[in-house]
Amino acid sequence: MSSAKIKTQNNQWLSQYVFPLWMEKGVDSQNGGFIESIEHNGSPQDVPRRAMVQARQIYAFTEAVKLKILTANQVRPILINNLKFLERYSLPNGSYLHAVDRNGQAIQLQNELYTQAFLLFGLARAFELLQNVEIKERALQLLKYLQTERRAPQGGYTELKNSEVLFQSNPHMHLFEAAIEWMRVDRASPQSSQWKSLATDLSDLCLKQFMNNGPRVVAEYFSESWQPHLEQGRFIFEPGHQFEWAWLFQQYGDLTGQSFQPISEHLFLTAEKYGINTHRQLAFDEMWSDFTVKKSSSRFWPQCERIKIAVELKHELIADQAMLALHQFFAVPQKGLWQDTRDADGIFIPQAAKASSLYHIINAMSEYELKR
Predict the structure, then answer these.
(1) How confident is the model at residue 1 (pLDDT cuts 50, 70, 90)?
(2) What backbone phi and psi angles, to 5 degrees, belong to 286?
(3) Residue 348: Cβ-neighbour burial (10 angstroms; 0-12, 13-18, 19+)
(4) In b/e form, how buried is each residue of 14-35, taking b as 16+ CB within 10 angstroms?
(5) Span 293-314, mean pLDDT?
(6) Which of 224, 251, 217, 240 is nearest to 157 (CA)?
(7) What is the 8-class DSSP label of residue 227?
């Protein structure tokens, strides 16, 4: 199938099914928040609403404006109501808690770094569309909290889950993403140097610590001194995160004038060589650092990240193959929803479509639309 035809299919799916459905059933017009998930029969689920989902949906809806699927006038009131709902997650120290119920009552009080990273990212996208200085002030409060209360002894930031202090690369990747987004939308202000400084620190942390290992891949789990957590002499890495880091390095390079092409190519080609189920053209979920497969299932999101970096690095055949593979996840009774995971046998695991997934899907389709 030609890239032009793939683009047409993507646009039709997003404009005719995805956003009409999520505008109707995925936006809580009464309370202001985004719905967490929708069953494959089209019924919204009444489950806790994670702050991360609220932030990711801000991205998805604002990206739909850029793709001319929705108008700014359609999205603006949704964002305004959503930002009011986000106040229910806000903590006095500047951070955001994990989840609330549909009425905005706190359910999970933990404030993971992963959640903070996505809130910082979502606030950047809301600021870009609404141009409300209060949004930026809230983002700066969050940044101050991270820098004063979550600094790790050897650089980076601590992850907190169930009162346990952890050291992981994944939340830093999304914090890097947020810093890049703020660099892009807030270039001319006095605060622009803060965003660049954050992005530079995270870039250096990845190159000097997360990839400080034999195969030069981004490990997932670490000790306090940023040494990879080993199991029988090997550590875990994820093909999807190699793709994602590679793409982010390219975005950061575009903004700073630096070239990260060799790093991005290395991460991409390593994940391509060892982390792809060539029979199904799907990325595996997890690998060991000796390049054996740890988890042979395939979630949809690594396929999205593969598309993005393949487009960015002009590996056009791989981009097309990965996009067509992603389309397999959209075969559900209610058009505009998706499957999440294919198990080791290639069978889809039944579960509701999570709103958080749209962030990955529209990001991949946007890159494919604009750059392929």
Answers:
(1) confident
(2) -140, 145
(3) middle
(4) beeebbebbbebbbbeebbbbb
(5) 98
(6) 224
(7) P
Query: DSSP letter at 329?
Result: G
Coil, helix or strand for 335? strand
Place of tokens 């958080």: 356
Residue 221 per-residue DSSP state: B
Exposure of 159 in the CB half-sphere (CA atoms within 13 A): 20
* pTM (2 d.p.): 0.97
Given this model, what pLDDT does residue 163 score?
Answer: 85
| Phi, psi (degrees; rounded to nearest 5) at 42 | 95, 5
pLDDT at 108 over 90: no
Which H helix or E strand runs over 49? strand 49-50
* Beta-carbon count within 10 A of 258 CB: 12
Contact of 138 with 123, CB cutoff 8 Å? yes
Distance CA 181, CA 202 (A): 14
pLDDT-derived band at 234 (thresholds 50, 70, 90) equals: very high
Specify whether the CB–CB gap between 302 and 308 falls below 8 A: no
Going along 140-223, which residue ranges are E strands?
Answer: 159-161, 164-166
Q: Does domain 3-371 have CATH number 1.10.510.10?
A: no
Q: What is the pLDDT of residue 342?
A: 97
Torsions phi, psi for 166 (to 5 deg): -125, 165
- Helix or strand or coil: residue 226? coil
Q: How many whole angstroms separate alpha carbon 207 and alpha carbon 217?
A: 9
Residue-wise DSSP of 270-294: HHHHHSEETTTTEE-SEEETTS-EE
Helical axes 51-66 vs 72-86, angle rounded to 10°: 170
Angstrom distances, CA of residue 91 to CA of 15, 25, 310: 36, 28, 39
Dihedral through CA 102, CA 106, CA 110, CA 116, nearest 10?
A: 60
β-strand pairing of 106-108 with 99-100: antiparallel
